[in-house]
Amino acid sequence: MKKIRGRMDESILVCVYYGPNGERLIKRGHKLSQIMDCPLYVLTVDALPYDEFDAEKSGYVDRWKELCDELEVEEFIIRDNEKRSSVKAIAEVAHNHNITQIIIGQSPQNRWEEITKGSFVNVLLRAMSFIDIHIVSIDRRLKSTEEMSFEKGVRGFLQKDENGNYRLSFARSKDNLYEGIFYKEIGTDFNNGVFKFINSQGKTCQVHVTEDVITGQLADPPNVKK
């Protein structure tokens, strides 16, 4: 059961985009909401439908959902398949949830794709003149020096071979132990990439695949589907 907030005249919205800085923004928002004893909401906006997110994007979203559950955030909001500008989507969410404070990253104009001219902050301020905006600096240490790109996900399965290794398969079989989505790295002729699936506890898991074989351990006992 979520804690009943003491102040309902204040409400905080954290806007996150794809990248490791999102967790930092959420934690900053949570700290502020604890100090003010008010509700906290987290929002991400994307022009693509959720089922078309690549492995990297969906991985970030899953982690943000987990973090929001851990911190007892009021609501994690995904506005996918959004054809309007991010500013309009944020403004609508802010209005619907009586938001009084918004937290964003330092350089959102480089992150929100449709903002190509001027300052994103200035556009946001013009759209929501009665809301306080907090700008959190991006930690450059969190930026990856090499960003992987993946093809669109395809349905796949994991089987255990005679050596005890988990191996990727694309055919339905009684030997399949896990069903999920495989995201192949762009620029490789082999099945290298990421396999994403739901374990028997209902938690989203993500493992690396190298030439059809899972690298690393699958600690969760498989939920066999026949």
Automatic annotation (TrEMBL):
Superkingdom of the organism of origin: Bacteria
MF term (GO), any: kinase activity
Keywords associated with the record: Kinase, Transferase
InterPro entries xrefs: Histidine_kinase_KdpD, Rossmann-like_a/b/a_fold
Keyword Kinase: yes
NAD is among the record's keywords: no
PANTHER family: SENSOR PROTEIN KDPD (PTHR45569)
Name of this protein: Histidine kinase
